[in-house]
Amino acid sequence: MDKVYAALPDPPSEIEEEKVEEKAFGNFFAELESVELPLGTTLRSIYDDQPNAHKRFMEKLDARIRNHDREIEKMCNFHHQGFVDAITELLKVRADSEKLMGQVTDTNRRLQDAGRDVTAQTEEVICCRIQQRNMATTVEKLQLCIPVLEMYSKLKEQLDSKRYYAALKTMEQLEKVYIPRVSQYRFCQIMAENLPRLREEIKEISMSDLKDFLESIRKHSDKVGETAMRQAQQHRTFNSAVAKQVHTGHYSKPVYSLSGRTHTHISNGLLTDDDAGDEEEADEEVLTAQDLVDFSPVYRCLHIYTVLGDRETFENYYRKQRKKQARLVLQPQANMHETVEGYRRYFNQIVGFFVVEDHILHATRGLVTRVFTDELWNMALSKIIAVLRTHSSYCDDPDLVLELKNLIVICADTLQGYGFPVNRLFDLLFEVRDQYNETLLKKWAVVFREIFESDNYSPIPVETEEEYKLVTSRFPFHDPEIEKQDFPKKLPMSQSVPQIYTQVKEFIYASLKFSESLHRSSTEIDDMLRKSTNLLLTRTLSSCLQNLIKKPHIGLTELVQIIINTTHLEQACKYLEEFITNITNVSPETVHTTRLYGLSTFKDARHAAEGEIYTKLNQKIDEFIQLADYEWSMAESDGRASGYLMDLINFLRSTFQVFTHLPGKVAQTACMSACKHLSTSLMQMLLDTELKQISMGAIQQFNLDVMQCELFASSEPVPGFQGDTLQLAFIDLRQLLDLFMVWDWSTYLADYGQPNSKYLRVNPATALALLEKMKDTNKKNNIFSQFRKNDRDKQKLIETVVKQLRSLVNGMSS
């Protein structure tokens, strides 16, 4: 196959090259003639294109210039005739223009001459306009500055008049509204610099006022508390009177208040003063805390610190200072317990403090909170209770303790009205009640001692019916037999009985005073009265009676009267219970009603008096026995009883006659005790170890004395003994003396140990001791010397009896 070759393009012709070159240089010249395009790029493209490009460019440029010159020449030739015509016209106008120029110059000269005055006046007008503009600008600026100055002046006036809260508000307006409008002026800058200093001054001044207020309120708390407590008491008194009116329909009982004024409630329900028409006092009674204290410093200071954004600092400072003041208020005086005024001042200050705090709590928002006041109150309550416990323990005056109780109640009622919990104060009153009862018991102990010391311990003589009624009105005494007797007559008890009974009732009244206003039920009051009365009877009166009975100067007669008195007081206990029931209106049949223990008190006192009677009676017998002066070696008796024994028997007779008013068993017991003691004393006299010898004559004399004792016993000195009961007190002596007087040893020895023995009460040891004393008299020619002379067999019998008695004694010991 034949190869096929593509045809090569023909080389460009010279004509085409020239066209391309022309076109390129045309573009270059267009770019050069354009003022907007930069020339550097065009020139660089010309020189960088081909060698000899600069030469060819210059050639083309010259050709281009020649072409433009030809076009300019053509244009000038085309417009030349019009130019010539214009020049010709211009030359014609030249003359007219010179003439016009002269006229214009002349007109201008004349116009300048004529406007010279106008120019001067115009300049004056311009100056006035400038002045007016300046004045208007000044007035405008002054109108902006005057409110600032007025506000600042107002600020100064408010500071001078101590209206600090308003001054702070004015400062705030100055800073936020007025000063920014004219802040470019120097005086405004000075004002702005002074405002922080003025704020600090206001803070210092207001804080100083607050300190003065705190100091003032500390001094005025006493008056505030006194007023609040007086109003609370008057309110309580009024409520009590209204309650009485509801029950009774009318009332006219005087009501007493702390201020000492007396109010009387009349039947129409109105409250009238004894000092009628005293309007100032009536106005004074309704004063409140804000009437007595100016709280404006607190409000002002609070508002100031609030505006200054420092309220928290103020609240913390106020609370801290009030806590310090609370501690000072709660600190009592050392001698507070000595007078009621000390307690009253203490309570007034406490109540005044918390009344002020309550007012601050409700009058301000957040200065003090309920939590803060409750914390303060709880702290104060613990301190108050501790202080009252300590100081009340020093009180020994029941009237002062009662006043203290009244103050506690009024204080509690007052603060309760302001919303403070006071249950612990009422609980404290139970402790104060115990202290009050203790002081009452001490006081009545003195009263009872004085009554006992002043009593004559003899029956009350009654001369007339009036005297009898007077006694029975003071003491519930009823005895039909005595009432039947004619005047004058005697009541069995002594003067101390109605006095004691009256004083017990007075004690109940005194105890009742403490129960008033305690908000307790009648049952609780009844229980308190009965318990305190029981303490009076079982502790105070019982102790006084026991001490009285033990006193050495109290004799048998007094003891007998004491027994009679306690018997009547014991019988009067039921009347005391009725008395308490009438006061409290609580039925004695109530389940939890406490019974009076007076019965046991008086029984114990009576038993103690009975025992003391037995003791003193025996002591008196011992005193008579000590007067005995037996001649133990006498050959024969005097034939009559010893003088000391007859005096003793006479004393016993007179004493037992006094016992007729005693209960039968007491008199019988006393008589039996005296006879037994006398018998024992006589037996001890015979068996005294210091008595070595005794003669038959002495035995006979002793027998006469014992016979007198037996006669006394058989004469029934105290009624009520059956048969020979009283004589049995001397049976031991009688059998012993009969044994020696009859010398019936054979019978004694033979019947010894038999239940029907004639000498059953004779102890072998006793008989042996007495026989030994009689045996020793043979050395001094006593009765045994006669035996030896008369009958030696009888001596042997005595020896035998002695041996047998010793054997009996030894047998008993073994």
From TrEMBL:
Keywords: Exocytosis, Transport
Positions of the Exocyst complex subunit EXOC6/Sec15 C-terminal domain: 425-773
Gene Ontology biological process terms, A to Z: Golgi to plasma membrane transport; intracellular protein transport; vesicle tethering involved in exocytosis
Gene Ontology CC terms: exocyst; plasma membrane
Alphabetized Pfam families for the sequence: EXOC6_Sec15_N (PF20651), Sec15_C (PF04091)
Domain Exocyst complex component EXOC6/Sec15 N-terminal: from-to ranges: 60-229
Xref: InterPro entries: EXOC6/Sec15, EXOC6/Sec15_C, EXOC6/Sec15_C_dom1, EXOC6_Sec15_N, EXOC6PINT-1/Sec15/Tip20_C_dom2
Role: Component of the exocyst complex involved in the docking of exocytic vesicles with fusion sites on the plasma membrane.
Protein family per UniProt: Belongs to the SEC15 family.
Designated name of the protein: Exocyst complex component
Organism: Poecilia reticulata
